[in-house]
Input
Amino acid sequence: MNIGYACLVVGVPDTNFKNCILKNVSEARLKDLITHNLKSLENIIDYNISNNIKLFRISSDLIPFGSSPINVIPWQELFFSQLQRIGEKIKRSDMRVSMHPGQYTVLNSPNSEVVERAIDDLIYHTRVLDSLEVGTEHKIVLHIGGIYNDKQLAIKRFVSHFKELDDTVKQRIVLENDDRLYNIADVLEIGTLLNTPVVFDNLHNEINPCNKQMSDTYWINECKKTWRQKDGEQKVHYSQQEPLKKPGSHSNTIRINEFIDFYETIERKDIDIMLEVKDKNLSAIKCINCTSNRGIKALELEWSKYKYTVLEKSPSDYLEIRSLLKDKSSYPVTYFYNIIENALQKPEKIGNSINALQHVWGYFKDIASEKEKESFIKKVKNYQQGKATVTSIKNSLRKMAVKYEQTYLLDSYYFDI
Output
């Protein structure tokens, strides 16, 4: 079983993706953007390899205007060596990648122009994966689309347009249930008809169920029947509802107890789980650590990244984790993350925030200039008086961490969560 995340990385430098608006598009600009984005992707792949993350969704924004006629540069040829190098890293590490076109890629629209753009977008996504030279187990996830006042007719259009796709595109596609229109039974019927794998999304099924009496495990096992050997391991999407937000809003982090319940209920390991969550790789590492015994050093590494954020939120939880990790023969992984989750939910308190700021400032107090020292003291005072935010002070400390090459701080999550 592999557990992964989608598109972006939290707390890892040089992994952002850039784009531009239509009026600023030029050949030179597109080349610069693609160069930057491919470097970011390679950095993400390197990060995944170093953290043994073997499931990842590549952002559709990799090639700006990749499916638009406005992008006429032969990016597959111009960036062949970079794409091949990234693809080799993916294959050597046994990583599985995927892509997921956005909401405007609608194959069953009654508007022929919308369908043509959808086909172009699917071709673009296929070209990205083909350029990486990865096998057909590396997939493109697609929703069925709209209903347009006649669901059965919309399904017929989808089937018809799908059958017209090039085989290189069809062999990449997997179909997913959505949270409004096409429930898992609908998608299973379509997938079975088209001999196309189906991805089960648990939160979508919770919001848009076919039969509330049927468990997630039942539907996962039904979807398993649509996966063939050439498609690789079955994939599911897993997410949790963020409390107090509209239905379908992904949680900020994966609540580990809920995930473990889901994981243990499946009772199968021949499955890949794509997490859809705001904190991305952080939740992926959490879930991987909790489903495999990586040893106390894995938790110590995690603690080095979380410690100042926990201190900022809850000094008592900070001390509890320090005590917890003293036993080097143990692996209290779920309890460890429960404490962190508990801490991160606590509201901001000025005293706690300043305490953490002072701890982080300790890395600079002997190397900072007098001007920087005076500036820090003034900013903390302004924060105490309600004239500044803790975020603004943390941003200035991040800049100092870069300036003075404090990699321990830069590798932590203190500036990011």
Remarks:
- The mean pLDDT is 96.
- Residues 27-50 form the longest helix (24 residues).
